[in-house]
Amino acid sequence: MKLTNIKMGIALLLVMTLLSCSKDDGNGPDPIEVLGIPFASTASNITDTSFQANWVLVAKTDGYLLDVSTNSSFSTFVAEFNALSVTGNTFVITGLSPATSYYYRVRAKRGVEVSNNSNIIAVTTTGIVAEDPTFLKVKANALANPFFVGVAVKSQQLSTGSAYDVVLKNEFSSLTAEYEMKMNPISTGSGSYNWVAADKIVKYGNDNGINVHGHALVWHNAVPNWLTNFSGTNAEFTMEVKKYITDVVTRYAGKVKSWDVVNEAVNDNDGGLRNTIFLQKMGPNYIKDCFQWARDAANAAGDTNLLLFYNDYATSTNINKQNKVYTIVEDLMANNLIDGVGFQMHNTYLSPTKIQMETDINRAVVKGLKIHVSELDIQVNQNNDITYLTEERNLAQKAKYLEIVKIYNALPAANKYALTVWGFKDNESWIPYSTDLNHPGNDWPLLYDKDFKLKSAHTGFLEGLN
Ligand code: XIL
């Protein structure tokens, strides 16, 4: 037994000696090391159009292959960045688009050998997406069945060379006075008028080949104090309203293409007539009377083409109200007094739905009436849950603008008239300041920001015309 153990020990020693001799004989080359896979680290120096890609160096390489893509599966590559050969452990990628997501990865190389891909790093460039600068009316006028693209204006905006003036002439083919052609500012007493602002607005439109829509002859929220406090009989009150309508329509005959004759005559609750001073003093036929006086005045002044509109809000979501509006419209049609319906469309990014708007508008379409989307704006903060225009709301608003423009553009040619946006810049919109809307504070409902920069909403409008 003892002898056998000694023999085995000697044999083991021999094998170990042989093995140690073969491991390094001092003459052969080093064994080939496996090429390491690089580890990509986060991007740095991110700008609107560039960023620096970074990674950890791998030992014994002679360079790296860099891929940059706009998708994480690298199915396409940013030009030049498809296995671009680089050295070092950083590389600045330039010529990119603002506010865009990119992905990068690297491989190590040594001679013809290439490692597997590193991990993938996502990076988004700073800045804002450039909006399509095409002018709204240019695109609308090129349609098979064009229509007016309108905007609500204030007379003080209309001085030549102002930003409003430039945008208006470039982008819009129609205008509506935001308040200066209502009864309150024009009518200063029985038979006395202040025409200064209204004249300026109408002349601006006429001089510049921009359609002028008149808004509004009779509206309960724009009754001048002297008429609110009128102490005469109901018949005398009625004569005052008739005289006002006649004088205004006569003055602008041939200069104003269309008028909202009566605005918001239906209440929000049960779909009855709104309990206004006009209803109280003139009785339930007052709407028809006002249309008749407007028509008579236009005809007497030689304008037989004046378009008369009934204008109201929230009819797409409030079905009682919608039904009542169409009862009024049918009554006016039976007397040959109405040409079109104005849908204000002070909407939100959630409401009304596409189908609600289409259903509502279609009731006027089948009657052969002109359609005016008359006061479009789209709130994004109706619940006061954001403090700045977030990207998510911005895009939701864009989609909602696109939707309504598409609905409008799909109307038959004979029903098209105008689609009017209620103001220029977000910060001057009536929306954030309206106590009626009950969401005082921030909102961004229009097509331009406070610096007159195009918003995504504007691009949405354009895309609605595709
Ligand atoms: C608003 C204007 O935007 C405000 O500037 C003005 O002070 C009040 O009226 N429905 C209408 C519009 O028909 O005339 C209203 O315009 C908005 C609601």
Automatic annotation (TrEMBL):
Name the Enzyme Commission number(s) assigned to this protein.
3.2.1.8
Secretion signal: which residues? 1-22
Q: Enumerate the transmembrane spans.
A: none
Coiled coil ranges (UniProt) are none
Record-annotated active site = E375 (nucleophile)
The record lists the catalysed reaction(s) as:
Endohydrolysis of (1->4)-beta-D-xylosidic linkages in xylans
Q: Which PROSITE patterns match?
A: FN3, GH10_1, GH10_2, PROKAR_LIPOPROTEIN
Q: Which CDD domains match?
A: FN3
Note whether Hydrolase occurs among the keywords: yes
Q: Which UniProt keywords apply?
A: Carbohydrate metabolism, Glycosidase, Hydrolase, Polysaccharide degradation, Signal, Xylan degradation
The cross-references to InterPro entries, in alphabetical order and at most eight, read: FN3_dom, FN3_sf, GH, GH10, GH10_AS, GH10_dom, Ig-like_fold
Question: Where in this chain does the record put each GH10 domain?
Answer: 129-464
The answer, when asked if Lipid biosynthesis is one of the entry's keywords, is no
UniProt cross-references to Gene3D superfamilies, sorted A to Z: Glycosidases, Immunoglobulins
Extract the SUPFAM superfamilies matched here: (Trans)glycosidases, Fibronectin type III
Domain named Fibronectin type-III: residues: 37-128
The UniProt similarity line reads: Belongs to the glycosyl hydrolase 10 (cellulase F) family.
Q: What is this protein called?
A: Beta-xylanase
